[in-house]
Amino acid sequence: MATKHEQIIQHIHSLKAGSKISVRQIAKTLQVSDGTAYRAIKDAETQGLVSTIERVGTIRIEKKNKDNFEKLSFAEIINIVDGQVLGGRNGLHKTLHKFLIGAMQLDAMMGYTEAGSLLIVGNRVRAHELALKAGAAVLVTGGFDTEESIKRLADEKNLPIISTSYDTFTVATMINRAIYDQLIKKEIVFVSDIARPFDKCYYLKAENTVHDWHVLNNETAHTRFPVINEERHVVGMVASKDILRQDHNILIEKVMTKHPQVVQEKTSLAFVAHMMVWEGIEVVPVVDENQVLTGIVTRQDVLKALQHIQRQPQIGETIEDIIAREMTESDEKMVYETIVAPQMTNQLGTLSNGVFTSIMIEAASRLMHHMKKGELVVENLTVFFIKPVQIDTALVIKPHLLEAGRIYAKVEVEIFNERKLVGKGMIMAQLIDR
Asked: Where in this chain does the record put each CBS domain (predicted)?
């Protein structure tokens, strides 16, 4: 039976996009406490089902598919630009397909304005009217208002007209940055992207016996299974080592490992890979916020996903991407060179500490690849920043392997500028076989 939290999420799923949602309404409809309703609504906001806007309230929005993640709803636009709604509240759940800046003649502007777009413009009332008639929403910059007739038209068309105190250039920059951030998020793989769902995973119940483990093992050839109770909560894990030389009639709850490591659907692939390496885990149960089993993820699933990611183009470029792109191999074997780009610096124009550290990790990782040791997962990192490094400086990076085992490595990385040492680090890491 679904929990109250799950019932609320299912209820929100069933609402039409644009529906207003409140704690009191949910509590009354589903006969739950205000606290339970509030927590479920916040969870729905995290899942992208609703959006909360100041002076408007919480509304149901269209949940974006990952393939279409870079599209923003008008409700999200309001939060990004600290805007207020002048009209067309019922259209806040809609997504914009593109935005344009109204800095041209009216006829030319309308040639680019189409349904589903957002026109960013100042106090040009005629432009507001024509954009709404063309099926586009309007964002009025500079803190200006618009005429009452335009607000009524927005209500009729269910197209938002929004006002913000920021100027046009700032607004365009803010929206561009929000889209760019979502492009980067789009590339992040979560456990939910690779997990085997509940109806396709194998498990045992606490009241099952060791004999049931043997039966399931013969059917599936798997050796590790999550153990659940009547509410489908994960209460343990049982593996071949747990049932070795045990009587077939002993209950699973007597031999299982209690309080196992679990992950949630929004746990990142990088985190679960790291956990599996350090804990030596082959299978991890996937649970929801109520600790109810929703699936499993295996080491093979994680390694397959990591290999797939390496073959994919990165749409949104991160600092790590810039470092990897700019770092080149010098004439000397296993020595690298890079130039300090503007994106790598802090507000003082010197190489930021975080980027300094990332350069060292990238160099160590390349050394491991060259020696066919596998993927580097950093366990401990000690860094010494000896001299500040300014923008456009040429750096030489020299990684040295100090120790290496089957699953462990210790690497020292030195960074030079004009043959002077500017920083060094000691990296202790575990290795994942490629």
From this structure: 256-314
